[in-house]
Every structure is written in structure tokens, then in C-alpha cells.
Amino acid sequence: xxxFHDLTDSELDPIYLQIARDLLANKKTLTNAxxxxxxxxxxxxxxxxxxxxxxxxxxxxYLKRNIYHFSAAKSYAQMQYYRDGMVDKNGNIKSFDxxxxxxADSGEMFNIQHLKVExxxxxxxxxxxxxxxxxxxxxxxxxxxxxxxxxPKHALLDKFTAPKSDAIWRRICPxxxxxxxxxxxxxxxxxxxxxxxxxxxxIVKDEVKxxxxxxxxxxxxxxxxxxxxxxxxxxxxxxxLNWSNYGMDKISKIKTRELDAYxxxxxxxNETIAKPHxxxxxxxKGTTSHVRYYQDKTVIVTVDKDDVVTGTKVIGISRDxxxxxxxxxxxxxxx
Length: 335
Fold this sequence. Notes:
Elements: H1 9-24, H2 33-46, H3 60-84, H4 96-134, E1 139-143, H5 152-157, E2 161-163, E3 183-186, H6 197-208, H7 217-220, H8 229-234, H9 251-254, H10 265-274, E4 278-282, E5 287-293, E6 297-303, E7 309-316, H11 320-324, E8 330-334
Antiparallel strand pairs: 1-2, 1-3, 4-5, 4-8, 5-6, 6-7
């Protein structure tokens, strides 16, 4: 079982402080890199499940990419919320101390209350995807937790059975709501069929249609889909964020760091994959660009959704504009 632990004050306080400073200074920061990455780090623990043979689930890398995308949309929404809260009821910009406290207090809603629910959703979805992949049966059965906390509509679906190949499982595969504890398992051909597919779907249609719950994580390879309010709010902007929008360093500042000397293309390629300074995902293409800086070069290695290398570029570190073309999308890592 993956247990949830709140983000601590020591993790969040420096982030809230930076957010307050950036917004009051009118910086064009659309999200905060640390807030985004801390959220993703926490949620990624939820999808780390172990299979029967003791290995990580094969879907884990795909689910983690979805988590990073979701976190980008969430942190984008948070920054909008904080920006809207800069002005008090009299129309005046809040003082730094007042605004910083408000950001921290409001942050509890996003980073404790909401995050716990999102964590449980991610973990339940990962477990269901694992169960689906390990299912050695042509039939799938829906089952509830069997106690007095089961939602009445979900109770009506208990023992519903259909072929694993049936499209119904793309629509009513648990979890079906926040906090849903229903499961899937191998079906029994002798179980009486009390509901048709249409009848089964209609029971929960009002709750799942057009939401993130009308999904089968094992098939779609995602947990939070485009129907989530954060994605609806961002409307694709979270996929276009760049290094400046995340509040990250310019190339001119990166050049002042203690960087390794560039040896050759092959060595640099392997180092960039193993220890990138930054990693950026393009959710539409399913690619990730790993970036590593050297004293006089920047190396960018692009991999596909299966982590197969599709391209390597070596660029002079002074070519800021060219390098920055690759510093955009969903941030997955930074040093």
C-alpha cells in the first residue's frame, strides 16, 4: 500500500515565499517550477505498484508522464488563484507579509486537502491497471468493498460481469468517483447476468459521463484525462509553458555555473540521458527532451514514449534562442 504524507512546511514554505515575491514583483511567472515538481513527486509515489513477480508495473512510466502533465495544469491553476488574491477587498495590493500568509493558508487547500484526494485517485487507478494486466481470464467482474460505506449505485453493479474485450470496461472501470474502493477481478461464466451493458452504464452515467472517471487506465495509460477541471482551465496552455514561465534561469546565468567539460558526442549523449540538468515533455508528441549543459556546449537528447532515443543535438551554449526552443513543454526534471 502506498501511504500518503502531506507536503511538509519545510518543503512548501520556501515555495510560497518565492511565489509571493514573484507575483508582487509582477514577474511573468505563470507557474512555479518547485511547486509543480513537488506535486508531481508526491503523486508519482502513488503509481508505484509492484506486480506479482516483484517488478514495477509496466504502465508506471506512462502514468508518471501523465502525473507530470496533470501537475503542470494544477500548478498553473494555483498560480492563477494566487494572482487573483493579490488584491484586498478595498482594491489595494496586499502587503508582502499579508499576501505571503494568504498564499500559504490557501495552499493548504491545494497541497493537503486536494492532493490527498488526487493521490488516492492515482493509487486506485494504478492498482486497477495492474489488476487488469494480471487478469488471466476472458471475463471481468466488478465488485464493491461490500460494507455499509459502498455507494448505492455502485452496489447495483456488484458482480456485474462482461468479457474483458468489451468496450463497457472503458466506461465503468473503477474508480468511478473520488474515494471509490470498487475493484475488478476474474469473472465467472456461471454468474447470472442481471444487467445488460447499457443498464450497467446508465446506473453511473450521470456521475461518470464526460469526466475523468469514464476511463480505463490500463487501456488509456492515463489517470487524469482532459476532462479534469485543471486541464479544462488551462486549455492547453500548460503544454506551452517555457523556462521563463516556470521562473527558471536564463542561459546567461546557467553559463556561470561550474559545468563539466564537453568530451565527445557519445559520452555527452549518455551523460545527458543519465543525468540531465532539465527534462521537458511534449504531451502531444509523447516525446521528452533531456538537456545537459557543458562549459561550451549544450546537449539535447530526445526520446519517445518508450524512452528510445530519436535524436541528439549538440549546440553551442551561447546560442540562447536555439537552446530555449527545447526548454518548453511540461517540466519533468531540473537540477
